[in-house]
Amino acid sequence: MSMGRPLLAAGMMLIAGCGFSAGAGKSVDRSDVEQQVADRLSATVGQKPTAVTCPGDLKAKKGAKMRCRLEASDGTNYGVTVTVTSVDDGRADFRIQVDDKPLST
């Protein structure tokens, strides 16, 4: 079973409660964000994406957003929005939202 179908069926999937400690620069490292997105999606849809790619570190500031790209196992790409929902004692919590339609090539 490909990952593309469950993601497409989910449409605008929201995953809350993810978070990491922010580093000295008050941001969450890009690789930590990518891994957290992959892990949470895997737990939610039961399949791990082939890849999650984000453009940089996520600012640890409430309301900060970043767009990432998810590649499903069938090669379909989806946009993912990561939004910081709270920052407390150096920990940034964020929400993950997967686009309801694949990205155009």
From TrEMBL:
Name of the protein: DUF4333 domain-containing protein
Organism domain of life: Bacteria
Organism in which the protein naturally occurs: Actinoallomurus acaciae
Keywords attached to this Swiss-Prot or TrEMBL record, sorted alphabetically, are: Signal
PROSITE patterns under this entry?
Answer: PROKAR_LIPOPROTEIN
> Which InterPro entries does its entry note?
DUF4333 (IPR025637)
Q: What range does the record give for the signal peptide?
A: 1-24
Q: Where is the DUF4333 domain?
A: 15-88
Keyword hit for Signal: yes
